[in-house]
Structure formats: structure tokens, C-alpha cells
Specification:
The protein is mostly helical and about 260 residues long. It contains 12 helices and no strands. It has one domain.
């Protein structure tokens, strides 16, 4: 049986099966999204139910993470500044506020960052609640923006992409400053404490690690932007959608979705 001490104790090695199951779930969902993209585009009811459910689940995950993270008090090492928690928070905010600017962020930081996160070695095993927070969180920050993209054919334009890129850069620079000031490792930006999957970069480039990471991030954002623009989804606007929402789906410059 699982006990509370197991669920909140510090980690153990994740076996291969514990790693491959979340990846299998993620890519199965992505495959299903691709196969049924037109059906989802024709009827948004199922997608909306899923998004609301995802928002509730991620909210519960955040609360559980806060309880465990701050059980011994709040300090500079356990603030809500890690990449996953920021993206989960942004995704929940988007689901319940429909702010386009947030979508423009999570379609890049959530999808790209979540994909990278799924392959980074994680220290907790399946009998720790952090395991579920980490993998479910990464799956949701990838899937939610993709569902919005498929259902609404919503994608950022070049100006919005550049703004998202600048925002991510500002966050990263802020994390570098905090890491240097407080001896933390938010966003895996400390050279001596990078995950082992990224150690080849520090071994190869040394002190240029942060520059190389920035170049890779820029390239990934550009490639993902091109893929988003080239991927076509047949858009069907339901008759009950308001003119404001129709205009938004048609990619006019509204800063929020209609709540309908």
C-alpha cells in the first residue's frame, strides 16, 4: 500500500516502464487528435468538456503541489518559478479566461517545453505524487494548446510569435538573475546542475551553455511557428457562435475569446 510518506518523500530512480507509459499516453492522444481533427473541428462540445476537465485537474495538481512544496515552509528554493508550474498556471488561466496572449505563450512554451520535459530524467517513481504532477502536468501543457489549435484553428501570427519569444526571453533572463542571486536552479539554467540529458551541451560548450540553449530555443520556436502556419485545419464556425467569436476565429485582432 502507498502511504503519505511515500507520496511526499524525496525521489527514487524512475524505471523504464514508468517513463515510457507517459510518453505512450501523450503520443496516443496526439495521434487521436490528428485522426479526429475534423470531427473535433465540427463539434466543439467534447473538446470544451475536456478542456474544462483538464483545467480542474491541473488546478487540483497545483494545489497538491503547493501543499507538498510548502509543507516545511516557503523559501527561495521552492517558489512557483519552475518551468512546469509556470506553464500549468498559464494553461489553467487560459482555459478559464480565454486570453489570447496567454495562448500565444503556451502554444510555444507549453508544447516545446513540455516535449523537452517528457524526456528529461525525473527523480520520482510512480509511488510519489510528484511523479503524477510532473508527467500529467507536461501532458496537459502540451495537449491543451494543441486541442485549441485543432478545434479553433487558432495560431499566433508573426507579431504575436515575436512577442511570445520576447516574453520567454525575459522570463529566462529573470531566472538567470534569481539563480545567481539565490543559488537556485530554476529553468535548468545553472551549468553545474543541468539534467544529465543536457550535460553533453555543457561538456561541449562549457560557459557558452546558456547561449547555445538560447539558440536552440530560438530555432525550435521558429520551426514550430512554421509548422503551425503550414498545418491546415478545416474550420467550421457553429451557427450559435457570436459575431465577436467568429471574428476571433477568423483571426482578427481581438484579445479575448468570446465566453460562448
Amino acid at each position: 500500500m502507498l502511504n503519505l510518506s511515500n507520496f511526499i518523500s524525496n525521489g527514487s530512480n524512475v524505471i523504464f516502464l514508468e517513463k515510457i507509459v507517459p510518453l505512450t499516453i501523450l503520443y496516443t492522444i496526439i495521434l487521436l487528435l490528428y485522426i479526429f481533427k475534423e470531427k473535433l473541428n465540427e463539434s466543439t462540445i467534447v473538446a470544451n468538456y475536456f478542456l474544462n476537465l483538464a483545467g480542474v485537474i491541473m488546478g487540483v495538481l497545483l494545489v497538491c503541489d503547493l501543499v507538498i512544496r510548502w509543507r516545511d515552509g516557503i523559501n527561495i528554493d521552492n517558489l512557483l518559478l519552475d518551468f512546469l508550474t509556470i506553464n500549468i498556471t498559464l494553461t489553467v488561466l487560459f482555459i478559464f479566461t480565454k486570453i489570447k496572449y496567454i495562448f500565444n505563450l503556451i502554444i510555444f512554451s507549453g508544447v516545446i517545453g513540455g516535449m523537452i520535459g517528457m524526456f528529461i530524467n525525473f527523480e520520482y517513481s510512480i509511488n510519489h505524487i510528484q511523479y503524477y504532477y510532473y508527467y500529467l502536468g507536461n501532458i496537459f501543457i502540451i495537449i491543451v494548446p494543441l486541442i485549441i489549435f485543432v478545434v479553433q484553428d487558432l495560431k499566433p501570427n508573426l507579431k504575436e510569435t515575436l512577442l511570445s519569444f520576447v516574453t520567454i526571453q525575459v522570463f529566462s533572463i529573470l531566472m538567470v538573475f534569481i539563480n545567481n542571486l539565490a543559488n537556485t536552479n530554476y529553468f535548468y539554467l545553472v551549468i553545474d546542475e543541468v539534467p544529465k540529458q543536457l550535460q553533453f551541451l555543457t561538456d561541449t560548450f562549457g560557459d557558452l551553455y546558456l547561449i547555445i540553449i538560447d539558440i536552440i530555443l530560438t530555432g525550435l520556436i521558429f520551426i514550430w511557428y512554421v509548422l503551425l502556419k503550414s498545418f491546415k485545419v478545416r474550420t467550421n464556425i457553429p451557427t450559435h457562435v457570436t459575431s465577436t467569436n467568429s471574428a476571433y476565429i477568423s483571426k482578427k485582432k481581438n484579445d479575448r475569446f468570446s465566453s460562448n
